Amino acid sequence: MMKKMLFLLLIMLFSFSASASANPPISSETWYVASSTAGQRHLTVDVYNVGTSNISITLYKEGPSGQWTEVFKDYENLWSSQLYTLNYSLGYLASGSYKVVLDVYSQSVSIGHRLDYVNFY
């Protein structure tokens, strides 16, 4: 019984992430951040939301020839009109230039979100 519950939970989680990534975002916002030293990093993102939104937060690192490589991604469902503070422990990251991208996949109100603040430390 426990194995069935775990299996169903994994199927539900996978189906959400697969459906969210299969559809292109309806809007995106980007903030650029930098780190002068390598080390353990954390990311705090404030997202102002109105209505209901399905979003993703993605962190990319800039490579030596200008290409961007994804180093972190998380999906969130924002259910109410408020300021959400999302905190992530990213682990060890190299120094360099990074960008944080907020992608919105669905929203109940046309002005349903805003990337309000990013702290990369």
The best one-word shape is globular
Question: How many independent structural domains?
Answer: 1
N- and C-termini, Cα separation: 43 Å
* Major sheet: 4 strands, antiparallel
Low-confidence stretches: 16-20
**What percent of residues adopt helix (DSSP H or I)?**
10-25%
Number of strands: 7
Name of the CATH class: Mainly Beta
Spatially, the strands of the biggest sheet line up as 1-6-3-4
The H-and-E topology, N to C, reads as HEEEEEEE
Please count the helical segments: 1
- CATH architecture annotation: Sandwich
Mean pLDDT, to the nearest integer, reads 81
Which structural class fits the helix and strand makeup? Answer: alpha+beta
Structure explained in plain terms:
The structure is a single chain. This protein is of the alpha+beta class and 121 residues long. It has one domain: Jelly Rolls, CATH 2.60.120. Helices cover 17% and strands 60% of the residues. The strands form 2 sheets. A 4-stranded antiparallel β-sheet has the order 1-6-3-4, with no helix packed on it. It has a 3-stranded antiparallel β-sheet with strand order 5-2-7, with no helix packed on it. Strand 3 and strand 4 (68-78) form a beta hairpin. The termini are far apart.
Quick structural summary:
The protein has 121 residues and is an alpha+beta fold. The protein has a single domain, classed as Sandwich (Jelly Rolls).
Features of the shown structure:
121 residues, alpha+beta
Layout: helices, strands, pairs:
Layout: H1 2-22, E1 27-35, E2 39-49, E3 53-62, E4 68-78, E5 82-93, E6 96-107, E7 113-120
Antiparallel strand pairs: 1-6, 2-5, 2-7, 3-4, 3-6
